[in-house]
Amino acid sequence: MAASLGFVLVLLALAGAAHGHPPVAGSALSSRFYDASCPTAYDIVQSVIQNARVTDTRIPASLIRLHFHDCFVNVSTIFISNFGCDGSVLLDDDLPAIQSEKNVPANENSARGFPVVDDIKSALEKACPGIVSCADILALAAEISVELAGGPRWRVLLGRRDGTTTNIESANNLPNFFDPLDVLQKKFRDVNLDDTDLVALQGAHTFGKVHCEFTRQNCTRGQAEGTLENLDQITPKTFDNKYYDNILKGRAQLDSDQVMLSDPAAAMTTAPIVHRFAANQKDFFRNFAVSMIKMGNISPLTGKDGEIRKNCRRVNNEGY
Ligand code: HEM
Ligand SMILES: *[C@@H]1O[C@H](CO)[C@@H](O)[C@H](O)[C@H]1NC(C)=O
Ligand SMILES: CC(=O)N[C@H]1CO[C@H](CO)[C@@H](O)[C@@H]1O
């Protein structure tokens, strides 16, 4: 048993190494990638999300967060390749080969929207079987979600393929609400995102929910643990720049939001950007779109690497 497990791991390591060249950021992605092979892709994703949000208004927020948690998990070594926006966050446990990223602290009892991704995938498989990757579903869903909530639109770059591994170590290293500003900046810089990207992308906390025990108030208004609160207490469901007003008033929910203004080092780095975006929603929208495209370009698998999963929860060839 131990010997055969070791053999499987060696095979996996070799398979990883074969595909293990560090991909160039944004290599072959294109906004027209599915124009010929699945021209209805955008409309299909949009209509599933529109239906889902009728009963669950939080779905757009939950979906954009999945794209973030997918893209930020990136480790490449000689033996293990794990790419950025590769759909890894969607894989369920299938031990020993696949240890799901859904169980790391940043995701457990927190990341959600997976059944909606399944519905999108089924609808796409019906319309154009084997064409649209799960990683691209998350990128499309993120843009559509922002747009449906009143935010900017942008041309989503497409053509990502799905990975066949997860990376728990990297998922454990996702940005955390108790990270100080310099750690947040480093985690973003490590994936080529600068201070403007950090401030713009955290602007996604303009919608969606947070467990009260993660907030700066820490359930001190007598809420039961696990109570959900709005991330943006001014306009909780609208994608706008009110999030930055919250920060200016000292009323951001997460420490990791507030530090962009309050950290001693913020004055020279992130604080002026917070002021800018609070003062000018157009400026925020423009930068948010640019930063989303940059985030979506974190080491995608392209060309013949990876695969197009049939089911976003499982790799195609499980029975090695
Ligand atoms: C700077 C690093 C970030 C940290 C530390 C962080 C942390 C968090 C935390 C703690 C929550 C609440 C989770 C819960 O209570 O279950 C949350 C929710 C959320 N985050 Fe972030 N986040 C960061 C960046 C981002 C980025 C870059 C995006 C998207 C572009 C994003 C989008 C969201 C959304 C939309 C929600 C609400 C999700 C829902 O209601 O299901 N966050 N984040
Ligand atoms: C909230 O309070 C609990 C219990 O006092 C503590 O363990 C936890 O670290 C606090 N969380 C935050 C985000 O401050
Ligand atoms: C968490 C992690 O390992 N991030 C890596 C992502 O990729 C960049 C660029 O290759 C590395 O510098 C980071 O260390």
From TrEMBL:
Chain's gene name: gb01303
Annotated binding of Ca(2+) 1, by residue: D70, V73, G84, D86, S88, E101
Family membership: Belongs to the peroxidase family. Classical plant (class III) peroxidase subfamily.
Catalytic residues of the enzyme: H69
GO biological process, one term: hydrogen peroxide catabolic process
InterPro entries in the cross-refs: Haem_peroxidase, Haem_peroxidase_sf, Peroxidase_pln, Secretory_peroxidase
Residues annotated as binding Ca(2+) 2: T206, D232, T235, D240
Cofactor note: Binds 2 calcium ions per subunit. Binds 1 heme b (iron(II)-protoporphyrin IX) group per subunit.
Primary localization class, coarse: secreted
Binding site for heme b: H205
Known function: Removal of H(2)O(2), oxidation of toxic reductants, biosynthesis and degradation of lignin, suberization, auxin catabolism, response to environmental stresses such as wounding, pathogen attack and oxidative stress.
Site (Transition state stabilizer): residue numbering on this chain: R65
Gene Ontology CC entries for this record: extracellular region
Domain of life of the organism encoding this protein: Eukaryota
Entry protein name: Peroxidase
Leader peptide range in chain numbering: 1-20
